[in-house]
Amino acid sequence: MRERDNVCSFGFLAACLCRTAQVRVCADGGANRLFDEMPLLFPRDDAIDVRHRYKPDIIKGDMDSIRTEVLDFYTNLGTKVVDESHDQDTTDLRKCVAYVRDLAPNLDKSNLCILVAGALGGRFDHEAGNINVLYRFSTIRIILLSDDCLIYLLPRTHHHEIHIQSSVEGPHCGLIPIGMTSVSTTTTGLQWDLTNTEMRFGDMVSTSNLVQGEKITVQSSSDLLWTISIKM
C-alpha cells in the first residue's frame, strides 16, 4: 500500500503542477515517472489520453535515465528535448532550474516560483543535491515537494513572513541551518519560538516544532531551510 500511496501522491502533485504551471519541465528520469504514474491517477481514462493531457513542455538532463519509448512518445507530442549529457558536473535539477531562469532573462526573479515534485524521499545523495540547488539559486523561490512535506530556503538577507494555508499545511515544521551556524534566530507564531537562539549541527536545531497561527515570522543571521508538513 505504501508504494501505491507514493505513486498517487506524486501523480496528484504532478497533475496540479501541469494544470497551473506556465512552463512544465521534466528532468529525464522524472519523465519516466510522469509517463508511468500519471495514468494511475485516472484509472478510468485511457492511459494514452492521460499522457497527452499531462505532458512536459521540456525534458532536460544528461539523458542517462530516460527510457527510449518515453523519449520517443513525448518527442512525437512536440516536447522539446535538451540533451546536456556533456555536463556531468551539475545535477539534472540544477540544469532544469537554470533553464527556467534563462527562459525570460528580463523577468523579475522575485515573481518567479519553481515547484519541484518528487524532489524528496528517494536516495539521500539526490536529496542533498536538490537541497544544494536551493542555495545555488538563493534569489529564486524554489519549493521542493514530497508526499509528506515541502522545503524552501529562507535567505538571511530578508525578514520572512510565512503565511500558513492550514487546510494543506502543518502543523509540524522545522528550521534547519545547513552549512553554517545560525548565531541568532528569532521567530514568532511557533509553539516553541526562538529568541536570538543559536542553532548548528552537533547542537540545537529546530525540528518537530508546531505552527500556532496563520503567520510565522523568521529573522536569522544565516540562511535556513524552512520545512512544513503537507496534507495530501
Short key terms for the protein model shown above:
single chain; 232 residues; alpha+beta; Rossmann fold; Jelly Rolls; 2 domains; 6-stranded mixed beta sheet; 6 helices; globular; disordered N terminus; thiamine diphosphokinase activity; transferase; kinase; thiamine binding; ATP binding
Can you describe what's shown?
The radius of gyration is 19 Å and the shape is globular. It contains six helices and 13 strands. Helix 1 crosses helix 2 and helix 2 packs across helix 3. It folds into two domains: 147 residues, Thiamin pyrophosphokinase, catalytic domain (Rossmann fold, 3-Layer(aba) Sandwich), CATH 3.40.50.10240; 84 residues, Thiamin pyrophosphokinase, thiamin-binding domain (Jelly Rolls). The longest helix is centred in the first third of the chain and has 19 residues. The chain has 232 residues and is α+β, with helices and mostly antiparallel strands. The two termini are 15 Å apart.
Task: Classify the oligomer.
Answer: single chain
The CATH class assignment of the largest domain is: Alpha Beta
How far apart are the first and last residues' alpha carbons, in Å?
A: 15 Å
How does the overall form come out from the CA principal axes? Answer: globular
Q: Widest sheet: strand order?
A: 4-5-6-13-8-11
Classification by helices and strands? alpha+beta
Would you count the extended β strands for me? Answer: 13
- What's the name of the CATH homologous superfamily of the largest domain? Thiamin pyrophosphokinase, catalytic domain
Number of domains: 2
**What is the count of helical runs?**
6
Low-confidence stretches: 1-8
Family: Belongs to the thiamine pyrophosphokinase family.
Pfam family, one: TPK_catalytic
EC number: 2.7.6.2
Pathway: Cofactor biosynthesis; thiamine diphosphate biosynthesis; thiamine diphosphate from thiamine: step 1/1
